Amino acid sequence: SILKPESFYARPHQVIFAEMRQMYRDHKPVDLLTLFDALESKGLTEPVGCFAYLAEMSKNTPSAANIVAYAEYVASYGRQRQLLALGHDIVGQAGDVRTDVAMLIDDIEQRLFAIAEQHEQGGVADLPEAYGQFLDKLVQRCQSQTSVTGTPTGFQDLDEVTSGLQPGDLVLLAGRPSMGKTALGLALCEAALNVNAGPVQVFSLDMPVDQLLARFTAMLGRVPLQHIRSGDLSENEWGRISSAASCLLSWKDRLLIDDSSYLTPTMLRSRVRKSVRQFGHPALILVDYLQLMRSPGQENRTLEIAEISRALKSLAKEMRCPVVALSQLNRDLEKRANKRPNNGDLRDSGALEQDADLIMFVYRDEVYDPQTMDKG
Fold first, then answer.
1. For residue 125, what pLDDT is reported?
2. Which domains, and CATH codes, for the chain?
3. How far apart are CA 282 and CA 175, in angstroms?
4. CA 204 → CA 128, 207, 349, distances in Å?
């Protein structure tokens, strides 16, 4: 897991390491004779050379007692070469007046992040390695006592349908105004914080941090939000608020709130990567709400939302965590007799439906029919 063939500078060493790794995965013995035989059978002896070269390498190899340290040296030198290549690319592209500076900065950040995380972005997957990881996860699921394989939502019925919010998924949480999108989004954050060691990052474009904390306090303390807004609190409610405050403060460095009112996909990725370096990989990312983000340079709003949607999906994949994006719905559904939302009601772009792995709608029938039997 420390080294890849590309970690080695010399082509022969890349070939040798790749073959040794494959033999190990195939549960075959690895020594000078078996390795040379495997290389010869695949026609790989030309870049490696003769058997004497392998023997000389083996003879000059120190004790295996410090093998992990040696591997880390090789990996470190490999990353240094990646940094040199990146620096060379930066010099070349930054000197071109046609270069889009914002895109260049984003590309540099992504490549630096990949180097720091010791994994490559993109490229052809190593099938045996990828399938081995899949089988490991499958075994873990079979041995697990629960059907929830992702981040629990905190709602048993929802977990049974979704198996939890899956890593790499873009989740849309959509609804008309005042339906409870933000409340449900914060409940998902609470559930993620309760079961994961990683941080939860909230990008609140819709409301400032004090309003968001008021909602968190109301949710955790089971106190009506209106009582917190008005300050009309009973002694019992003050006690519950104190308990909620203790819970919130225990999430220091884990509940990360950014209430910037202007946010582009590039800014979002940059801030998430920065928080990863400081606080670790996120367990969940919440964006409230998607239509308030901006993507300059697009011809119209539909293309702008499509670009934002693709960027959020890409971020979920890069961070290997669920990204929950709150979304508004079209006003046209208000004209229908049946106002329960569907995918066609997603506002501004059909790309939202294409990019999302999971779409959830928040609907309260009592908003339209106070006498309904389906309240809540």
1. 65
2. 5-129 (1.10.860.10), 149-367 (3.40.50.300)
3. 25
4. 41, 6, 21
